[in-house]
Amino acid sequence: MAKASYGLSARPNAYGFGHDWNLExxxxxTSKSYWLGQDAKVFSRILGMDxxxxxxxxxxxxxxxxxxxVQKLIAADVIRALLEMDADEPITLxxxxxxxxxxxxxxxxxxx
Length: 112
Fold this sequence. Notes:
By secondary structure, the protein is an alpha+beta fold. Helix content is 37%, strand content 21%.
């Protein structure tokens, strides 16, 4: 049985400050990456939060500042926001596949 997986990657942008964020999705057979945009734009436009408070919010939610833990929570919130899901709703294989049907630029929040 195929299993969905998801996460985020954040790489330094070409300008030398800030990061470009990508949502990484897999349905167990195929993987896709979606460029979301730069730091503040991802948090404000997709998640509706202030970028300056986001690190503390997610570190507290994860109980850690370890990137592997924090990025999974952010990725889940991005998926829920894109699909207009409830905050505590579990993400299913069908949810991931729905997003994977979009064009690579479909979720871009701006910047860069």
